[in-house]
Amino acid sequence: EAQLVESGGDLVQPGGSVRLSCAASGFTFSDYWMSWVRQTSGKGPEWVATISQDGTDKYYVDSGKGRFTISRDNVNKLVYLQMISLRVEETAVYYCVKGARTMDVWGKGTTVTVS
Amino acid sequence: DIVLTQSPGTLTLSPGERATLSCRASQSVSGNYLAWYQQKSGQAPRLLIYGATNRATGTADRFSGSGSGTDFTLTISRLEPEDFAVYYCQHYGNSPWTFGQGTKVEVK
To answer: Which residue in A has a C-alpha nearest to residue B94's C-alpha?
Structure first.
């Protein structure tokens, strides 16, 4: 069974940084695009970033360009999201997701609080 | 960016009733790249429908998707107790891939 487990969420000050990690298991990790999606309490999800199978193609939400970096380690089946210059409004649960377009496996999420 | 508007915001129905959820896009969704997700309280979203009409693995056949262009619908033919949740539509044509604000299906 495919599983994703996020970690790294924290309480950070505005302007601070955080690095999220996601460990994948139960599927051939290197065959799939991977994404991060965030969700603020009571609101719809917001796509944040996506990376191709080999890491060469990356896409970001406009508000994250220049501040967010998505990366992956196919040997250890990990995907990362480095975020800098964080804003209060980026407080959210951050989900690691298998896929780029149809997101068919989600982790339980890790919480980033910017305050 | 494509804005997805879902209606109604809340749907109050009884088990066994039919639910019809709407998702309207601000511009045509290329390739009918439209998905529906279900989210229960405290859980991550779960993919139900992709390509506007295709059920994802494990999706019960009481769930069906329809529509094209800018207007899409998710129908739950007969509500089961486990179907009361929030439903989101998402387009995945050209980036950025956006979600609607959700429709909550609650028990009457």
So the answer is: A101
Residues B31-71: pLDDT tens digits? 899 999 999 999 999 999 999 999 999 999 999 999 999 99
Question: In residues, how long is chain A?
Answer: 115
The answer to whether residue B98 neighbours chain A at the CB level (below 8 Å) is yes
List % helix, strand, coil for chain A (3-state, nearest 5): 10, 50, 45
Whether the bond between B45 and the residue before it is cis, its omega within 30 degrees of 0, is: no
Confirm if B33 and B89 have CB atoms less than 8 A apart. no
How many Cα neighbours within 13 Å face the side chain of A76?
Answer: 9
- B107: Cβ contacts below 8 Å, ≥ 6 apart: B12, B13, B14, B15, B84
Residue A62 exposed, middle or buried by CB count within 10 Å (0-12, 13-18, 19+): exposed
CA A43 to chain B, closest CA, distance in angstroms equals 6
In whole angstroms, what separates CA A32 from the centre of its chain?
A: 14
Instruction: Name the residue among B61, B70, B8, B9 with its Cα closest to residue B34.
Output: B70
Which of B1, B47, B57 lies at the smallest CB-CB distance from A103? B47
Query: Which 3 state secondary structure label does DSSP give A110?
Result: strand
Label residue B8 by pLDDT band (50, 70, 90).
very high
Tokens of B35: 């998905």
Give Cβ neighbours of residue B65 (< 8 Å, ≥ 6 apart). B34, B36, B48, B49, B52, B53, B54, B55, B72, B73, B74, B75
